[in-house]
Amino acid sequence: MSLTEDNVLLNLLIETVAIIPLNTIEFGRLSIVGLKHLLSYTQEKEKFFVTPKFKVFRYSAILAAKQVSNDTPMHSNMLLHK
Fold first, then answer.
1. Whether the model pTM is above 0.70
2. What's the average model confidence in pLDDT over 7-18?
3. Spatial CB neighbours of 75, under 8 Å, sequence gap ≥ 6
4. Do residues 42 and 14 touch, judged by C-beta distance below 8 A?
5. Domain count, the chain
6. 3-class state of residue 64 by DSSP
7. Is the pLDDT of residue 1 over 60?
8. Cα(16)–Cα(75) distance, rounded to whole angstroms?
9. What whole-number distance in Å separates Cα of residue 1 and Cα of residue 71?
10. 3-state DSSP call for residue 43?
11. Which of 16, 33, 45, 74 has its CA 20 to 30 A from that of 25?
């Protein structure tokens, strides 16, 4: 599914999620694909994204590590300071 102007529901969903800080979203509630679409949309539309870049990187790294191993996020949290 592409992000088109006529997809009002998807646009509304992404705009709503973009104003929620990523650190308040439990890991596993937002998929890597969902995060990719969210970031692409906000960059493409030049929309405000509330989470700072480092925290987006941190969230992405932990999310990717979680896909490799469920034990990894604990170690990633220690390495990637909040």
1. no
2. 82
3. 65
4. yes
5. 1
6. helix
7. no
8. 30
9. 32
10. helix
11. 45
